[in-house]
Amino acid sequence: MRNASAIKWGLLPLLASLALTGCGRTPTAVITEPQTGTGLVSTINQRPELPQGVYPVSLAVTPNVVSITVGEQRQFAVSVQGSDGKAYQDPRLVNWSISDAQAGTINDQGVFTPQLQRVVTVRATLMDRVSDVTVTIAPAVYSWQQVQSPTSADLYAAKMVSAKEAWVGGANGTLLHLLNGSWQMVTGGNTAYTWRSADFANAGSGWMVGHQGNDLKATSPAIAMQYRGGSWVGTTTGVNGALLGVSALSETNAWAVGRDSAGKVLLMQWTGNAWRRDTSYKGSGHLNAVQMLGPSSGWAVGTDGDNALALHYDGKSWKESSLPFAFGIGRDSELLGIQMFNDQQGYAVGSQKNLAGVKRGLMLAYDDRGSNVVNLSNWKVKEASDAGVKFLDQVPLRGISMIDGNKGWLLGATVTPNRLPEPGTWFGGTINDVYGNLLAFDGVSYRIDNNFQYYNLSKEFTGIHVLPQGDGIIVGKQGYLMQRAYDWRNTNSGGTYNNLGNQGATN
Asked: What mean pLDDT is reported for the chain?
């Protein structure tokens, strides 16, 4: 078995493209090869012209009113009535222009590609004839769609590098690469490794961290590999245990967190040529996620073994952040994900047991903009608010990713609720599973999100990352992959998931 430090992953030639069923983009109008009308003067690589002595009597462009979304292409047709009584329809005869150059582009075939939301005029001109088209450009329509996966291994790490590129890692050394719409399996990894978290400082510099085997209480060396120069390169951590979260600031500065083999919290910093263990916090437990806001600011969350744990980095050391008063008394709680917007605002999610022993989802909001002297903590518990879905509060929260302060998603799982809150259902009652796999969060409360399509639904989502412009990925058990992109076309996904507890999951 090879040690992580001995691995150097070179990206092999891309495999044959995998068909992303249901997510191909098709123009609203079919774009065909240019047609050459009778009598047109044309040569290869030269724009056609009307025959000598012929002038345009009329010029029309169709359609003359268009509504499309950002990213959607539309081809305009032209009809030129010549002075010779003939009709000419080659779009290359006219000169195309747009009233606002930032709104989009149009080529000599009359194919318009919008780029920004607004109302513009597309104009076709031939000699003294002009025809205008009003185009209303709507925002891109984003939605979640399950896509075909090249693996059946459990996936945990998910990172969007750009709208067209992403990296995913998981069990059995699985490493997936999304590039220009195609998911590829990167071969050559150690099948004894489990990758738990990924982050990139930029497209050419990133990290993947994890542990050996499937047990979080690993006693083998913690593993980390760096992406640089187009290859994944293994590094030596020098610590036995598991790394569960990573945050990259630059090629020479990154932090990874987890648990060492003795059951202590593990904090590691990459200094440019080696990993250095930070011992400013020496408590027991483990950290599941870390987010660095800069070289002198960062957050990490996990558990001290019994109760939720949140740490803050001030550029010198990691210190425990106080949770709400009496929050941990008699409760078994853990934080699994974090999303901070700055040092004053953010969220952390996880799970906890109440005094009756019922496991529930846990969401904490952090706000340091005012005085919290009375509460002794800047963290505040937030509850699910969808009263139409019973027991939604019993869905454990496994991850969070926000587009902005008012829009984002939480990851959960399919759960069978505990019956204690409704004793009357102990005899003869049936409680449907709660499908909390994907939860929408608006900055105030969270609810079930049913705006996604699927073929078969994983019972548990494990990793999520969404870019500010809206593109994102979700990963789960058994190789489950979802993408969020604009304007999915010709989908055939078996219908929109209603997510209300009356439809079964298939895996």
From this structure: 82
